Amino acid sequence: MANDEVSLGIMDNLAQSFGVTVPALKLLLGIIAGYPFALIYRRYIFNKSEQKQCYYLIACGLTVGFWNYGYDMFHCILSILVTYAAIHLLKGIVMISVVFAFNFIYLLAGYFYSSTDSYDITWTMPYCILVLRLIGVGFDVYDGARPKEKLSSDALKTALSEPPSLLQMLGHSLFPSACLVGPQFSMRRFLDFISGKFHFMGPNGEILPPDSAKWAAVRFCMGVFYIGLFQILSLFVYDDLIISEKFASMSIIKRMLMLGVWGRYILYKYISCWLLAEGACVLFGISYSGEDGGVQKWNGVENIKLSVFENSTEFNHYIMSFNVNTNQWVAQHIYKRLKFLGNRYYSQGGVLLFLAVWHGLHSGYYFTFLHEFIVIYMERDLQSIIKSSDTLKSFFGLPIVKSGVHILLRLYTFIFMGWSLLPFAYLQFPKYWRAFSNCSYAGFLVFYLWPVLYGPILRKVIKKKKKDA
Questions:
Q1: Which pairs count as long-range contacts for 6-11, CB under 8 Å and 24+ apart, including other chains?
Q2: What are the pLDDT digits (tens) for 164-223?
Q3: What contacts 319, CB < 8 A, 6 or more positions away?
Q4: E strands within 93-250?
Q5: Which residues of 81-101 are buried (b: 16+ CB within 10 A; e: fewer)?
Q6: Which of 51, 73, 128, 372 has a C-alpha 20 to 30 A away from that of 407?
Q7: C-beta of residue 447 within 8 angstroms of C-beta of residue 374
Q8: Active-site amino acid positions
Q9: Using the 8-state DSSP alphabet, how is residue 322 labeled?
Q10: What pLDDT, in 10s, does the model give residues 309-342?
C-alpha cells in the first residue's frame, strides 16, 4: 500500500511538471515502452518460432495494457476471445455480422457507462483501436472464403484463407507498440512479420534483424520534437481557450490566428503519440514495405504524413495525411463495401457516420464528421466550377495569382482546421456552440452558405458569361 502511494505521488509530480494528467502521462510512458520491448525482441526473440514470438508480444501488450488500465483490460481480452470463437464457429455473412455487431455494441456500451463530459483516457481508448482490428480480421476471413474475382485489390492483399489461431489473434491484437493508440495494421501483415517474410539475409547467408533502427530513431526524434512543439504552444494556448472570456475579447483577426494555433496545439498531441508508436513498430520491423531502388522502406504503418499535413492547402490534404491507417481501414472495409448504394456521397456519408459512432456518443463527434462532409463537398464543388470555366482556369494559372492563392489557402486551412476541431475538442453542445459564437460563426459563413448561396450564385455568373461570349 505504501509503495502504491509513493508510486502515485511520483506520477502526480511528474504529470504536474509536464502539465498533463496522470492517465495521459501513463499513456505516453506506455507508448515509449515499445522501444525497450522492441530491443529485447531484436536481441532475444527475433527469428524464434511463431509461438514464442506471440507469447512475448502478448506478455508485453498485457504489461502496458494493465499498467494503463488495470483489470479493465479484460474487456479487450473478452472481445478477442468472442471474435476468435465467431470466426471459427460461424461462416460468411453471419460470421462478419456477429463480429461487427458484438464489438461495436460492446464499444458503445463502454462509452455509455464510462464516458464523462470531456475527453477520457479509459479502457475504451485501446478498445476502440481493437474494435477495428477485430472487425478487420473478420472481414479478412470472410474475404478469404469468397471468389478472388469479387475482391478489391486491397482485399486481395489482406484476405485470409483460414482463420488465425488464438495465439495469432492475441499477438496481433496486443502488439505492444500498437495496442494503445494504434497504428492499425492487418492480420496479414502480422502473420508475414512473425513468419519471417520481413527477414533479411546477411553477406554470409545469416538471417539478420531488420535494418530499421535508423528510421525508428528518426520517427522517435520527430515524436519528441512534436511533444516539444506541443509544450511550446501550451505557453500561449490551452484546451479551454476558445470558450474563455479572454478569447472572446480579442479582435477578430487575432481570434482567427489564435484559433489556428489552438488547432495545431490540439493536433500535435495526437501526432506526437502516433510518431512515437510508429517508431517502436519500425524498430520491431513490422513496418517493412518493400524496397525502392534498393533502399528498404519502413513506412508500412505510417499514420501521419508530415510533409502533406504541414503544407496543406485544402482539407482533403488533412484527410490524406492524418490518421492514415484508420482512413485506409475505413476505405477498404466500409467505403468500398457501400458501393451498392450507387452514389459516392451516400458512401462517404456512411463512412463519416461510422467514424462518428466509433469515436463515441458525444454530439461533438457527429457535428465534426457532418462538418467534414460539408467542407469536402464545398471544396470539390468549387474545384469543379473552376475547371469548367476557361476564364477562371486561365486566371488562377497566372504565376502571381497562383502564389497569392497558395498563401491564402495555407492560411485558410490553418485557421479553419482549428474551427473544425471545436466540436471534436469540446464534445458537449453548449461548449462548442459557445466556441462557435466566440469565433463569430466563421465556419458557418464560409462553408454552410456555399450550397445555398455562394455556389449557386457563382454558377449563374459563369453561365451568364458563357452565354454572353
A1: none
A2: 999 999 999 999 999 999 899 999 999 999 998 888 877 777 888 888 999 999 999 999
A3: 327, 372, 376
A4: 200-201, 207-208
A5: ebbbebbbebeeeebbebbbe
A6: 372
A7: yes
A8: 323, 359
A9: B
A10: 999 999 999 999 999 999 999 999 999 888 888 8
CA distance 160 to 437: 51
**CB-based contacts of 361: which residues, under 8 Å, 6+ apart?**
108, 111, 112, 115
Note whether 176 and 37 are within 8 A (CB): yes
- Return contacts of 291-296, CB within 8 angstroms, 24+ apart: 296/211, 296/212
CA–CA distances in Å: residue 397 to residues 383, 394, 406? 13, 5, 12
Give backbone dihedrals phi and psi of 182, rounded to 5 degrees, phi first: 90, -170
The pTM score is 0.93
For residue 419, pLDDT beyond 90: yes
Contacts of 399 (CB under 8 A, 6+ apart): none
Measured distance CA(36)–CA(26) in Å, rounded:
16
Percent of the chain topping pLDDT 90? 75
